[in-house]
Amino acid sequence: MEPTIAIVILNWNGRKYLQQFLPSVMATTYSAKQVVVADNASTDDSVSFLREHYPGVRVIVLDREYGFARGYNEALRLVEADYYVLLNSDVEVTPGWIEPVIGLMEKETHIGACQPKILAYDNKQSFEYAGAAGGWMDYLGYPFARGRVFDMCEKDEGQYDKSEPIFWASGAAMFVRSRLFHELGGLDGYFFAHQEEIDFCWRLQLAGCAVYSCPASVVYHVGGGTLPKGNERKVFLNFRNNLIMIAKNMPPGQAAWKIFLRLQLDAVSAWKFLLSGQGGYFLAVLEAHFGFMKWLLFKQAESVFPVKKQGKLQGWLSKSIVWAYFVKGEKTFTEIVKNKQ
After folding, report:
1. 308 burial type by CB count under 10 A (0-12 exposed, 13-18 middle, 19+ buried)
2. Is 133 in the same domain as 21?
3. Average pLDDT of the residues of the chain
4. Domain of 252?
5. Euclidean distance between CA atoms 143 and 150, whole angstroms
6. CA dist 90 to 14, 77, 222, Å?
7. From CA 49, how far away is CA 57, in angstroms rounded?
8. Burial letters 93-107, b for 16+ CB under 10 A, else e
């Protein structure tokens, strides 16, 4: 008997993406599936469109706009399945994209979360920014991916087609065992959006589970669909949430000195923004630091912390990706990790 799958799309004013990409989701060949759209209080005609054109899709209408992280938490409390697939509305899937991932996770029961290979919708020979062939993390908390380092996305030439452990699975298309999602407290709603899936995968590994990439499954992601890349709000959330994530998940002694160093590196980024005429981004980084201090002093109770800190971390780079990329000139994932120390 096949395990049951719930493909859950969190939608916010994304009617055009639903119209464009939902047909590929509905064409998924896996039989034991349900398709759910959780609407995050959209003000467009997303809900009426779904009810008119996709009566087979379950629609959950949330009472207000909760953001990506809490929006999924609210919706998934109402969804029963063996596996959840958190899928962005701007993702085109291939018909057989489910089977390889579920086959891997059923065989390797220690895997708690997994992602397909994510290629760019507008350039299907290139890896896409949000996850590529599986996410990694450097020792200072900078995320990168097999096929994507900072803003440079590699051409897909089969170089990352081996299924293997990673640090984080992309929230653009993340498979997760439903039991583990709820046992670990779901996504951290305080994050609102950005890096919440990295934080979840970190907590998942600390609890003794593995995160994997399954490149035999392929999807195509538009990226930046509801919050354009470079948006000041996105800059704020990325910088703030990354610091919170380090504080929550690293041992306190490590977290203290690494956060101190990260604050200095963030300041370099902020001044670079300012000197290049991007004053809004400078202010967003500054606001992120104040936002982190606010969380540290007053808001920790609103976050989700690891239930354990015993698991071994995979996809962890024991050196600085900033140094490797900008100083040593190592531009691809393979160059950077060939010598992990």
Report:
1. exposed
2. yes
3. 96
4. 232-306
5. 8
6. 8, 23, 6
7. 11
8. beeebbebbbebbee
CA–CA dist 172, 174 (Å, integer):
6
Residue-wise pLDDT tens digits, 198-220: 999 999 999 999 999 999 999 99
Does any domain span residue 145?
yes
- Tell me, yes or no, whether 152 lies in a domain: yes
DSSP class of 3: P
Least Cα distance to 145 among 122, 169, 123 occurs for 169
157 by Cβ neighbours in 10 Å (0-12 / 13-18 / 19+) ranks as exposed
At residue 113, what is the residue type?
Answer: A
Q: What is the largest CA-CA distance in the chain?
A: 60
Name the token pair of 212: 């994997």
Handedness of CA 296, 302, 303, 306 (dihedral sign): positive
User: Do 66 and 74 form a contact (C-beta atoms < 8 A)?
Assistant: yes
Tokens of 37: 């759209």
Question: Torsion angle of alpha carbons 85, 88, 90, 93, nearest 10°?
Answer: -10
Residue whose C-alpha is closest to residue 237's, from 191, 302, 182, 304:
191
- The answer to whether residue 312 is domain-embedded is no
**What is the C-alpha R_g of the chain?**
19
Task: Render pLDDT for 30-52 as a digit per residue (tens, 0 to 9).
Answer: 999 999 999 999 999 999 999 99
* Same domain, residue pair 274 and 213: no
Residue whose pair of structure tokens reads 């160059």 in the numeric block:
335
